[in-house]
Specification:
heterodimer, A: 264 residues, alpha+beta, Lipocalin, nine-stranded mixed β-barrel, 6 helices, 12 strands, globular, B: 138 residues, OB fold (Dihydrolipoamide Acetyltransferase, E2P), 2 domains, five-stranded mixed barrel, 2 helices, disordered N terminus
């Protein structure tokens, strides 16, 4: 709902004078608070189109929030680890064995070519995101594989173990000062580093998002712990630049591309 | 050493050259499958040939190219592109290449030695760049 629409509706309420003077004021206040974006509640507005940006210095405020025993992976965006390199993650023996058995050609089977990674890998991928922000939920739309995340901001708890898993999981968020903190669980197993290392469904992800002083750079840390796979935590620093007027494109993955990898 | 005679007389040919130092982990923006595993970012390949197919779909586009070797043989090469979503923001469209036109492509060769490469940049016969080439910043 645009501000103009809100103003029109408020004018209608005022003209009708159907409510007592102070009752009308209360309705007006409630209406405005519910309808206006998060700025009305004094929170930073992360709405907009954000394109992944390299070369942004890591934000110390965010890095200082990372818990002990966390390694920051240096593979954000275009960078990529070769086979057998996991950037300092302490991988449990059974997970390491599984990673060593990884055959990259399996990724390019017809049945696998359009399987998206989970948000653990997808958020740092070289694709833009678009954020739609309201007071009780925030939607993060990724261009990569058309993934859409809903971050519930209404204080609801995470669901139980029988809740279905997905590549975007179940996310709740809260504001800590100017920082949006998002916790995600119920993630379907998927790659961590795109080279055979896979997280389990017990992975838990904490993301912290904050704007640069000029509001044109969105910075985040994404930390993850997985007691099934890792003996330490991993994290990535990710930054995006605001591009007004742009929108996320449809991805519409076509698996027949994988046929190119089945031939000579 | 890189072949430089590709544009000379529009004679199709193919060359691969080992590049100098580069950031070990820096690879072109990729989608889903591992670039580092399938392609060698420390080498480059330059191909001039006639487009026989241009497929503009995610997760990767594909250009088929008939390339003439210096010996006069015709080889079919396949050149994988970035995600078309990414290419669109670099000025590419599904109509950027026409079947039958001659183009010169620079890219990274497949590690397995097959006639398969990953696109870095493409130029038309008149030297015009198709879209914007890949940069480490994306």
């Amino acid at each position: 709902m645009t501000r103009a629409t809100v103003n029109r509706k408020l004018a209608i309420i005022a003209r009708r004078r159907a409510l007592p003077r102070w009752g009308g004021a209360a309705v007006t206040c409630a209406f405005v608070l519910a309808a206006l974006p998060a700025l009305a509640a004094g929170k930073p507005d992360l709405s907009g189109f954000w394109n992944l940006a390299g070369g942004v210095p890591k934000d110390k405020v965010l890095l200082d929030k990372l818990p002990p025993n966390t390694v920051v992976l240096e593979d954000t965006g275009a960078a990529e680890f070769p086979a057998g390199e996991y950037g300092g993650l302490k991988v449990k023996a059974h997970a390491l064995e599984a990673a060593k058995r990884w055959n990259p050609r399996d990724d390019m089977k017809l049945s696998n070519a359009c399987k998206p990674p989970s948000i653990v890998y997808a958020m740092q991928g070289p694709f833009p995101i678009e954020i739609f922000q309201a007071t009780e939920l925030i939607v993060i739309k990724l261009e990569y594989f058309d993934l859409v995340r809903i971050v519930f901001m209404d204080g609801r708890p995470h669901p139980g173990a029988d809740y279905p898993l997905s590549k975007v999981g179940f996310s709740t968020g809260r504001w800590e000062g100017d920082t949006l903190v998002v916790e995600t669980t119920h993630l379907e197993p998927a790659t961590i580093t795109n080279n055979g290392l896979t997280h389990s469904d017990r992975v838990r992800v904490i993301e912290r998002f904050r704007l640069s002083a000029d509001g044109n750079t969105l910075m985040a840390t994404q930390e993850f712990e997985d007691p099934e796979v890792l003996d330490n935590r991993g994290a990535r620093f990710i930054a995006w630049k605001r591009q007004p007027g742009e929108h996320v494109y449809p991805y519409e993955c076509d698996p027949t591309f994988a046929l190119e990898y089945q031939k000579d | 050493m890189r072949f430089s005679g590709l544009m000379r007389a529009m004679r199709a040919c193919v060359a691969a050259a080992v590049l100098g130092a580069g950031a070990l982990l820096t690879a072109p923006a990729q989608a889903h499958h591992s670039f580092a595993v399938f392609f060698d970012s420390q080498k480059s390949v330059t191909l001039t040939g006639v487009v026989t197919q241009f497929h503009f779909v995610n997760p990767h586009g594909l250009i088929r190219l008939n390339v003439k070797t210096p010996e006069g043989k015709t080889e079919e090469w396949k050149v994988e592109t970035n995600s078309p979503s990414v290419l669109r923001r670099r000025g590419w469209t599904p109509q950027s290449l026409t079947v039958g036109e001659t183009i010169t492509i620079e890219g990274w060769p497949a590690r397995d030695g097959s006639k398969y490469a990953r696109l870095r940049s493409a130029k038309r016969a008149n030297g015009e760049q198709v879209g914007k080439p890949f940069t480490p910043e994306g």
